[in-house]
Design a protein that fits this description.
165 residues, 4-stranded mixed β-sheet, 17% helix
Length: 165
């Protein structure tokens, strides 16, 4: 299951008047843990300054992230699914939050509607908020190469020159 982490970074930048201004930016990472999200924050974020720090990390519950080639802003869209409880016969509402990039609220609504056109359950978009998130980073495994002095166990066991006992 995808777990999204919102990472806030803080750094100081010189403005046009020459004074230092503290800036906080927000990014979203798909990571396995808080530790990996923090490491990704330091490794993948480019602020244009050398000295920045991760000030907070929090989980962000999202049902889905819809990414499009164009769209400068990230919008949080609240979608309510309507289902009927078979036992009681009562209508039940399930709330999901979806993140989508767009150039405006109307385009965000259009993109969510387009992405959900094959959904069989009836749903209603109830809220759309512009977020301060600057960039979203999907999960990337950090597959490192095996060092030269290590071998896979299967290779060792299959080596005829290796005496196990």
């Amino acid at each position: 299951m995808t777990q999204w982490y919102k990472v806030n970074i803080k750094f100081q930048k010189e403005d046009q008047a020459g004074s230092l201004k503290t800036i906080t930016e927000q990014y979203l990472f798909d990571a396995l843990s808080f530790t990996e999200a923090e490491a990704n924050g330091y490794n993948r974020i480019e602020t244009g300054v050398m000295d920045f720090s991760v000030t907070s990390i929090s989980k962000m519950r999202l049902a889905d992230v819809f990414t499009f080639p164009e769209g400068q802003e990230w919008y949080l869209v609240k979608v309510v699914y309507l289902t009927v409880d078979e036992k009681s016969g009562k209508e039940k509402k399930t709330v999901n939050r979806i993140l989508v990039n767009a150039d405006g609220i109307f385009q965000a609504l259009e993109r969510v509607t387009e992405s959900m056109r094959h959904t069989l359950m009836p749903y209603e978009v109830t809220d759309i908020y512009q977020t301060p998130i600057l960039e979203v980073f999907p999960y990337q495994s950090s597959e490192e190469e095996t060092p030269d002095n290590l071998r896979l166990m299967s290779d060792v066991l299959n080596d005829p020159s290796h005496n196990v006992f």
